[in-house]
Specification:
Blueprint (H helix, E strand, L loop, with lengths): L21 H12 L1 H21 L3 H4 L44 H32 L5 H10 L9 H11 L5 H5 L6 H11 L4 H9 L4 H12 L1 H16 L3 H6 L8 H11 L6 H33 L4
Helix pairs in contact: 2-14, 4-8, 4-11, 11-14, 13-14
């Protein structure tokens, strides 16, 4: 006789609360911990956003009170206004950034000056520092430690104290208002040398000795072996040099006597002093945006070299 199977009673009760995945809790906790940094980043991004919207505002919106946070009628007149005429005064049409300076090629001349100066100083200072670092680290030069200590000690001297002596030297050489007056005083950079010396200490001396045994000269060793190995450190230092020289203001202001030889920071300072009022801020902001774009692009392109150079440099406190 078959016995009917019995089924256990089903006990019902309140469902157990579901727990959020551990990864989700960690993500929210990380976001909360990073909240102060997010707020700090907003304070840094806000001026760039204000510059960006001001560039594309027409004159009527630049004078509006309270100001608008989004351009209602975007325009490129702050770069070049075809409706402007010096013979006819029109408050709605003002000179764009490329119409403000009476020099050949307008504002593009200042960008060219900054480009030439920045490239020359960056390439020259890196080559000179790499040569000096190679000699200090891989050659038995008498007094090399003392020379290195003196170079490092020069980093403690405020660079402002060298402005007057450098100006007198440039004046006596006749290099005021010239490219060489810009470039030559900026070629010696003690921090770059210090950085490269620390990096070269990680390169084994046996590699250099093997190249000498094979008959390679010192110049060839430096060019074919040392420089390729220094590439991460050179790329890291190039970021500091490019950003510093592209935004350099005080020394160019001292030696520049004409608009034709001004770099971008000096040109923007003169533009801000010549033209005042809210209606002129569009052209000034356009110049500021053009000045900031190359440095931002350069940093974004080389930031991985910057990180790698810091990690591999082996600098110790």
């Amino acid at each position: 006789m078959a016995v009917a199977p019995t089924t256990a009673p089903i006990v019902t009760g309140p469902a157990a609360p579901r727990r959020a995945p551990a990864g989700a809790r960690t993500t929210w906790r990380n976001h909360l911990l990073r909240l102060p940094f997010y707020l700090l980043s907003l304070t840094m991004v806000a001026p760039f956003y204000w510059m960006l919207i001001t560039v594309f505002k027409p004159v009527t919106e630049l004078n509006r009170q309270p100001p608008s946070f989004v351009p209602e009628h975007p325009t490129l007149s702050n770069f070049y206004d075809p409706g402007y005429s010096p013979a006819r005064v029109n408050p709605g049409h003002l000179q764009g950034i490329f119409q403000r300076f009476q020099v050949d090629f307008g504002f593009a001349r200042f960008m060219f000056n900054s480009l030439v100066i920045t490239v020359a100083i960056t390439a020259g200072s890196l080559l000179i520092a790499s040569l000096a670092a190679y000699v200090i680290t891989k050659h038995r030069v008498p007094g090399r430690r003392l020379i290195f200590l003196l170079i490092v000690a020069s980093m403690m001297v405020p660079w402002q104290t060298t402005l007057v002596p450098n100006y007198v030297i440039m004046r006596n050489l006749g290099w005021l208002d010239t490219y060489q007056g810009y470039i030559v005083p900026a070629l010696a950079k003690a921090f770059v040398l210090f950085f490269l010396v620390q990096f070269l200490h990680s390169i084994p001396d046996e590699l250099i000795q093997a190249a000498r045994v094979d008959g390679a000269g010192e110049w060839r060793i430096w060019w074919r072996i040392v420089l390729p190995l220094l590439r991460p450190a050179l790329a890291a230092m190039s970021i500091f040099i490019v950003l510093a020289e592209w935004n350099n203001f005080l020394w160019p202001l001292i030696i520049v006597q004409s608009d034709e030889m001004a770099n971008i920071p000096v040109a923007l300072a003169r533009l801000n002093s010549y033209f005042t009022g809210a209606q002129h801020q569009g052209a000034i902001m356009a110049g500021g945006m053009l000045a900031s774009l190359p440095s931002i692009a350069f940093f974004l392109a080389f930031q991985r070299y910057f990180t790698r150079g810091i990690v591999l440099s082996g600098i110790k406190g």
